[in-house]
Amino acid sequence: MCQVTSRNFTVDIHTHILPEHIPNFREKFGYGGFITLDHHKSCSARMMKDGEFFREVEDNCWSPEARMKECGHHHVDVQVLSTVPVMFSYWAKPKDTLEVAQFLNDHIAQICDRYPTRFVGLGTLPMQAPDLAIEELRRCKEIGLKGIQIGTHINDWNLDAPELFPIFEACQDLDMAIFVHPWDMMAKEKMTKYWLPWLVGMPAESSLAICSMIFGGVFERLPKLRVAFAHGGGSFPATLARVQHGFDVRPDLCAVDNPIAPKEYMGKFWLDSLVHDPQMLEYIVGLVGENRVALGTDYPFPLGELQPGKLINGMPWSEERKGKLLHGAALEWLGMDLSNLLP
What we know:
By secondary structure, this protein is α/β, with parallel strands linked by helices. It has one domain: Metal-dependent hydrolases (TIM Barrel, Alpha-Beta Barrel), CATH 3.20.20.140. 39% of the residues lie in helices and 16% in strands. The longest helix has 21 residues, at 94-114.
């Protein structure tokens, strides 16, 4: 890989990874819903849920060496690793979810230990059981992970649920970042065709999560909490004016838990750059600030940016501004310094 400078150094905050071999948790726990990998041919596997096909993945979904080879081709210096959201398993028995989380977290931590200048890790938690989640959060910190990835909702809880606040508070206290990713998309029964859960449901889920944290006062009560939202914040940026107008005209419905206007929180959280459109990228940078938009690609999945950094690098911006999106915002969100990652 070519030598890099601090200005063109590239950190991708939105990449997913799985262990190459996943235990049969269905057999172990005595009920279904868990993912296994069927390695049916070389360098490829089927993700299976209870014997049903879920998704085909290639070895770049589990092999750090394959990832580094592709990162070299695309000039990505560091990937932030998080599990595939279907692995969250919030629906399972809490102690079983904890065991799944520990398995996944140990796997990511081992990769980061092996390649400390190439990968940074995020953990997953049994969010449906806050006490267990906080215990595992502390362990994530101890094994070197820099934050956690969570879903846009936790079963029937949106992210304003009082049950979840102690987890967010612990993240602030422990200096652990949060990456919020859509999962278990709303209204799936109405979106059975055209891949609509991923095209319509995912953006709506991100807006649900951001609005819940704003209206629920999470950012107000925890001003040092560092939260990033996947997919450019989904549909939230495009509907912020509507959200703000609703707050203004119906405070009796919107301001019940937090009297601060939604627009006041722009710049208080991060978005990734995965918007697929230069006009939208320009818009979200103007909305939240160039130090609050970080490169994110959804690697290695097809809805992501297939040439990492192409959108940012193609913008008519200064190298300084591009550098903020390519690594500056990410490092601030992670609470890291560039010197820790330069080889």
